[in-house]
Design goal:
This protein is α+β, with helices and mostly antiparallel strands. Helix content is about 55%, strand content about 20%.
Amino acid sequence: MKALDRKLVRDLRAIWAQALTIALVIACGTGGFIGSFATYESLMDARDTYYRDARFADLFAYVKRAPESVGDELRALPGVAVVQTRLVWDVQLDVPGVVQPVMGRFIGVAPREFERGLNGLQLRAGRLPAAGERDTVVINESFARARGLGPGSMLTAVLNGRLQTFTVTGVALSPEFIFATREGAMPDDQWFGVVWTDRERLAASLSMQGAFNAVSVRLLPGASESAVLAEMDRRLARYGSRGAFSREWQISHRIITQELGQWQVMGSVLPSFFLAVSVFVLNIVMSRLVTTQRDQVAALKAMGYSTAQVRLHYLELAAVIVALGLVLGIGVGWWMGTAVTGLYAGFFHFPSYRFALPPDVVALAWAITIAAGMAGTWYAVHATVSLSPAQAMRPAAPPEFRATLMERLGLGRVLGVVPKMIARSFERRPLRATVTVLGVAGSVAVLISGIWWRDAMDYLVDISFFAAQPADVQIGFVEPQAPRVVHDIRHLPGVMQAEGTRALPVKAVAGHRSVRTALQGVGPQPLLRRFLDAQGRPIPMPPNGVVMSQRLAQRLRLGTGDVVTLELLEGEPRQVELTLVGTVDDLMGQAAYVDLDELHRIAGDGPRVSGAFVTIDPRQRDEFMRATKRLPGVAFVWAKQATLQSFRDTSQRNLLFFTSILTAFAATIAVGVVYNSARIALAERAWELATLRVLGLSKREVSSILLGELAIELVVALPIGYVLGYLLAALLVAFTHPDTFRIPLIIWPRTYAYAGLTMLGAGLASAWLVHRRMDRLDMVAVLKTRE
């Protein structure tokens, strides 16, 4: 073994604890990077494979009622490969043992199309209904699991005013409902179920024989999507079409794409920050390690080793540490990716998924880490190894010992020996303290940027579901009804207040930009559905013009006073032009609002309501829910408390998982920074500290010098880390743009407290390790080495 190789082994043995902590920090960065991107690619592969195997449609449209002959017209359009017409009907489901009605979506499909048609079902349990079999259905797997249903279970629903009971024969998956939700509502597998049944039987129940109200289209390769959409709109317009739309706007696909896109952002920003901090720590350690080995560098060069050879020696030392971190990082990435993929599988119901580490992701992570680590190490050791042997043999020039600011202010007479030594160390070596402070602040920022989502979601729920919507229940009708239905609802058991509401599906158009949304009518003084400004204060609805959510106005690039065109997608197709008179700070959805009387005029069919908001007496909740199960024409009854409880249970489980991961990562970084800083400071000042012991200072006093510096650095780092964490969270918000809600940048004191306590715990652990090292300091050996 060569002399430099033996020295490399001895150096690694001497700094094994420091090397391990640095490797763990690198493992956090590379593991987070690998795990995040591998999760993204694994889920995307599972999604695309399922879409292909299940023949997921490219285009979709819903109409009021169209004859089957129109389907033949669509099949003849250029570029169209397959057309599948269906019946889709929203109802209330009565699940045995459940008091509250469950939202259900019946889909009537021809038996031959259950598995082999577009959006084909993949059977997970039981069997499909046989042709001509009466009152049998298949339900989606997520709903079946949430409610403990399966083959042989019974469901009851009101179809076209008639109560019917169905037997579940099977449980299945569909690419349309990988993320099962009612048109963008908050997802909840307990309260929303998809039911597939024989089309002819459903048509008979709905009096829609020979007709359809939903159509799916698969395009030929190379077909013009926009041209086919335009033709579909033209041919379906007279049948009450809401406008054909592409897969991009299909709700399940859109939510999946946005969620995975947000995960990709998270997987880019946070791991990149981890990598930057880990390389930063590596540079600190290597720079200060080489500084403590000036005499060894001089001896090597005096013995004939060139500058390049000495530099290569230290690069090899750094390479061993980086390699250890990269190997550990693969393990961290595999564990993290497997866990996160499994977590997402609970939301995205793929028939199968498999986590895999793409070689290109691993190679990219390794290339970035190795390049950054080697470049930083080269820069860190360059100054020392470039010295001539004569210069390196001499100790480094001591700091300029002049009166410090503390002493010039007269505080030196008040403070004891130890505080004065700590203050002098900070003022004479500010760069060393700054480096440690920045490293700890970075770990604080990592932790805050990963767990502030809990605060954001809690705030979103408080504003959107309590301040803006005090109602306990929202009722939706299959078709708009006369306002007297609200009077009928007020007479249901337990009802304290009820307000009618109406929404029209529209396409908002501004220049070449367009967004499908809802135009909602608002009364002059609504009590159960309020509209809030940015400060959370209710705002009145102006009698003229349209008010939009800020996000909708931004997407259309509209400002106050601009004119927007609204294309009605319900009833007689026509357009209206309205002036934007204001915006509201909606956190959920992207809607437009007008005065209720103005909406009736726009709709052109007189006063109607499409739903109602209701507050109920908690003591009569069950009676109210039982009564709503028998209401005709009701598509859904949404109970806020039940849905929010399910949402919170799920989100708390997920947040606990991610918080635990990020806490471990941040604590590892903090320990890596603090421990390495303290160990190197101990190595640099061992002679000084040993001398103080000989002069009569106790172990406690000597330890307090070094540990006191660490404590001050830690305290100073916390507020800096809080600011960096806020800025990093703001960066994540800027990169994420979900359609269904806006992420508010809210960080509550509890998050700052949690981050601070975590970092203090990591600091105490590091201080204890260094204190043990100082207790074992061999003063004779240290002083002899100095001589």
